[in-house]
């Protein structure tokens, strides 16, 4: 996956507005904000994302996908380019159930890029970043670095 | 066993393996795509979580304990290609308050998993 010219820089707002199809679109995940090494994405509440019908609580899978994407964008931002990588591992701590009806906000940060591996962390919350619903830590394998 | 709406979104169906243990199938659909040509890691992770939950529910039998996920750790070992993915969970330890569950996902060969997960659950009886 090397050898093709890559545009300099990476704009997650354009990336998400130009996106067609795929799993993130199916879940309704959208862009909110970004900085030099972090990105915030939104997961609006939807009834087809429920994992516990009795309580109306979101499944953990959509939050996992949200955090995979937010941290992934964090890597592209820190590297300054849309370069190929693959998730090596992700760990999520589910601190509390997301409140039914509320949009979940996922903030992913890339805090270190080594030669072959990028290290990421982040939180998901549903309105108050001080009271997160989940905490994530993970790594991505850089596929252009071989 | 009825699956929640999110399992329907993923297109999960239930089956059993030769030993009679529950396994989950996720037929490929464009809605599951991540980077071109590969199933999204989030969809594979969500599927692993469902497989783990099903294995735990199966192990609990008639026990009506409520199950809360504490955490999940997922290793991605191979890309998921554009065809059916299978997944199965196994309960490593079923305690009074905590359950430890593992799950793997595979495509061509169960001994060559594409991803694996470990999960801790809180049980309320």
Please, could you describe this protein's structure?
The complex is a heterodimer of chains A (146) and B (125). By secondary structure, chain A is α+β, with helices and mostly antiparallel strands. Chain A has a single domain, classed as Roll (Thiol Ester Dehydrase, Chain A). In chain A, 22% of the residues lie in helices and 37% in strands. Chain A has 3 helices and 8 strands; from the N terminus they run ααββββαββββ. Chain A has helices at residues 12-18, 23-27, 60-79; strands at 30-34, 38-43, 50-52, 57-58, 85-94, 104-113, 117-125, 134-142. In chain A, β3 and β4 (57-58) form a beta hairpin. Chain A is globular and about 50 Å long. Mean pLDDT of chain A is 92; it is low at 1-6. In chain B, strands 1-2-4-5-6-3 form a 6-stranded antiparallel sheet. Chain B is of the alpha+beta class and 125 residues long. The longest helix of chain B has 20 residues, at 41-60. Chain B has helices at residues 5-10, 41-60; strands at 12-16, 22-26, 66-76, 85-94, 98-106, 115-124. Chain B has one domain (5-124): Roll (Thiol Ester Dehydrase, Chain A). In chain B, β1 (12-16) and β2 form a beta hairpin.
CATH superfamily of chain A: Hotdog Thioesterase
Which fold name corresponds to the CATH topology of chain A?
Thiol Ester Dehydrase, Chain A
The helix fraction of chain A, in percent, is: 10-25%
Figure out the total of helices of chain B: 2
| Tally of strands of chain A | 8
**Would you tell me the structural class of the helices and strands of chain B?**
alpha+beta
Number of strands of chain B: 6
From the 3D coordinates, which CATH architecture of chain B would you assign? Roll
Strand line-up of the largest beta sheet of chain B = 1-2-4-5-6-3
How confident is the prediction overall: mean pLDDT of chain A?
A: 92
Order of helices and strands of chain A: HHEEEEHEEEE
Distance between the termini of chain A: 10 Å
Share of helix among residues of chain B? 10-25%
């Amino acid at each position: 996956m090397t050898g093709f010219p890559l545009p300099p820089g990476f704009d997650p707002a354009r990336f998400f507005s130009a996106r067609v199809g795929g799993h993130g679109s199916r879940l309704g995940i959208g862009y909110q904000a970004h900085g030099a090494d972090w990105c915030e994405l939104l997961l609006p509440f939807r009834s087809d994302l429920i994992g516990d019908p009795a309580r109306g609580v979101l499944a953990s899978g959509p939050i996992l996908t949200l955090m995979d994407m937010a941290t992934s964008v964090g890597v592209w931002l820190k590297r300054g380019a849309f370069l190929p990588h693959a998730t090596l591992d992700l760990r999520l701590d589910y601190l509390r159930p997301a409140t039914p009806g509320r949009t979940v906000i996922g903030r992913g940060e890339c805090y270190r890029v080594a030669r072959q591996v990028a290290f990421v962390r982040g939180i998901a919350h549903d309105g108050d970043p001080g009271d997160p619903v989940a905490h994530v830590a993970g790594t991505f394998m850089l596929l252009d670095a071989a | 066993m009825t699956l929640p709406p999110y399992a329907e979104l993923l297109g999960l169906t239930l089956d059993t393996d030769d030993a009679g243990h529950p396994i989950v199938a996720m037929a490929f659909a464009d809605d599951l795509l991540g980077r071109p040509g590969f199933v999204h890691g989030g969809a594979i992770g969500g599927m692993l979580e469902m497989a783990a939950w099903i294995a735990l529910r199966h192990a609990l039998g008639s026990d009506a304990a409520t199950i809360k996920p504490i955490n999940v750790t997922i290793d991605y070992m191979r890309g998921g290609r554009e065809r059916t993915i299978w997944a199965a969970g196994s309960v490593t330890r079923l305690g009074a308050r905590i359950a430890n569950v593992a799950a793997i996902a595979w495509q061509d060969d169960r001994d060559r998993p594409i991803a694996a997960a470990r999960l801790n659950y809180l049980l309320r009886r």
